[in-house]
Amino acid sequence: PLVEPLVEPLETRSRADVCNFVFKRWNDLAAEHPRMPSCRAIDENRKSKIVKLADEFKKEGQGLIEVWEEIFQAIERSPFLLGNAEPGFNRSKAFRPEFGWFLNKENFVKVINGKYDDQHDSAGRNIAGAQKRGPTATAVDQARQRFQSFGQRAG
To answer: How far apart are CA 13 and CA 44, in angstroms?
Structure first.
């Protein structure tokens, strides 16, 4: 179930509203995807992380719930984040997306930047390129272009 974007500023959304949204949205998603475990409770530490992460990575004019909705939409686009990836990449078992994994800042950044967005060619190979992975990737692409043009001028 998609949640319509909210346009209310942070000041009008309570910390409890944000945490309740995340808790409900996670469990709705887990109910639809059997490899995603549900979340039974959110303690104060996790509530703090939910709010802090969204506050740190929100865009101008964006509320905390909208940031988390971006995360949930990214999860829905990714078989890996839904727990549907086979073992591999130094994993002996399939990845199982625990709620706490998304509260790790490093993982949160990867998800919000689109690192796990599903992009495969007709043979099933992952063709996600750096250009699809957010502002850092854009900077990397620009640096590559500058380097390539420098090499052409020097040659």
So the answer is: 18
